[in-house]
Please model this.
Amino acid sequence: MKRINLKTNTILLTIIAMFVAMNSNSQNQKTREDIPEKYQWNLTDLYESDEAWREAVENLTDKLDEVEKFKGTLTQSADHLLKAMEFNSLLSKEASKIYLYAGMNSDLDTRNMKYNGMKQELQSLFSNFGAKAAFIEPEILSADWATIKDFIKEEPKLAVYRMPLENMFRTKAHSLSEKEERIMALSGMVGSVPQAVYGTFSNAEMPKPEVTLTDGSKLKVGSAEYGRYRASANRADREIVFEAYWNNYAKFRATYGEMLYGNVKADIFHARARHYNSSLEASLYPNNIPVEVYHSLVDNVNENLPAFHRYLNIKKRMMGVDTLKYLDLYAPVVKDVDLTYDYDEATALILDALKPLGKEYVNTVKQAVDERWIDVYPTEGKRSGAYSNGAFYDGHPFILLNYNDLYDDVSTLAHELGHTMQSYLSNKSQPYPTADYVTFVAEVASTFNEVLLFEYMMNKVEDDDVRLSLLMEWLDRFKGTLFRQTQFAEFELKIHEEAEKGKPLTGDEFSEIYTDIVNRYYGHDKGVCYVDDYINMEWAYIPHFYYNFYVYQYSTSFTASISLAEKVMSGDKQALKNYIDFLSAGGSDYPIPLLKNAGVDMTSSEPFDKAIASMNKVMDEIEKILDKKEKE
Model:
């Protein structure tokens, strides 16, 4: 699940439009009036009312033009530089809070155009500010790094800005002139159009096909219905829903192709304008992540597809089917096991599971539950999925859920609490300029909590059927997080590489590339898992392809979290201290050294190797139970 943090860069204030989220349209959904207040966000922690928000917007707007008074002064003295940096940090913090209020209100009811309009107003406001503030980075870079280092020595208050300033000079070769930076800032208003169109069309305007299920009932198949029925125990219903859902996407293949190609071209434009060798380098270099990390992930996963195929064969064995099909991958494999937990039971489980992280950690999680940091249940018009948002620096993070009492929802809550605790500890421990952290490290904290929950449940449960269910659920995490996300990462890399060669891409080309990758991953040609032709439209279903090389970080973080969790669960006190320090470090260093200090080297194959070893261990346990049951 995606972590969202709207805190802006400490040098140049920009706001990236949040993805227009899916509406959850499942049947019999409650209204917000039906939900007890204790399970709803308390957004008055941000602003008491819309009127208070409007006043804050007006106050911020009045300040934005003041940025121009710093022009021509930034490198004159340490004091001038400090005033400009502090001014920008203040605006960034206020802007994040303002956008957070509008964005989260919109997420509670995506049908309400009032809050969507408030977001659009802010996006325009911040884009205009970005154009006015475009002089900041080129002006600072007109000095040399030795001068800036002397300023930091002369003025101790500049020390908190050392990391962003140092990174600015590290990426100096990719910075542009003031006029060019202004154009780049203004281009943000058009560069985000493909993503916005994708979100609006996919979630609001795309027609839903109607099908007749095996019991004779009618069903209109949208994303919510697809998500529900792909997990149905009825294979015939799964086939009906899959075929209708993906063939409906195929009707709009050309439209989805233009949207994704438009987004790819925007990535290429930004990469070339800033003199990067590729879109991949442009995405990774600002966070000092070597492109070899990305390529190594793809290579390692492809080399370990036999482990993934072993998982698929286990699923086939447990389902008792002659041919495993792609449409079987989300279906239940353990009969008569109902792993359901109401929300209060879930929070109690999680609080116990997280005890290895110490009292302060657990007490803060309890505070999040008790003090309405979490909006729990699905309601009409509410954004689907889940996220944690840590942009409220002077307050606390917020979590959005759509809790449905399934074990998967328990795991999702533990996941999002990992994000929340990293935001909470970083905001508490770091000054504002270094409190924010990048996605590469963010998903470590969330997946770490999933590992703890799984190990807790396995130590608690004795029944073989329940253990099988939990083991398969965890094995599905390897499939969904390590292999599936890398499958997406390989597709994203391939389409950018093709476009960078000058090849025009259409919906047909996207489907052809996707088919080649998905068939290889699932062993279609080897008879491991049959992939129906209509799955060649699955690329159009994935919003993350509009996030600029985002998904690979789910996979790398998953491998890192497994390695770190093993050390903490062993009772190693130093390992626990290192991990809590990592959660508290924010963006005070680059991702690779932060993780290395925590105890995992992401430039080596060790974390990936440990993840595969852990996966094989889980499969050994599953096969042991299956063999035992067959002998009974």
Notes: The CA atoms of residues 21 and 484 lie 21 Å apart. The mean pLDDT is 92. The chain is about 60% helix and 5% strand.
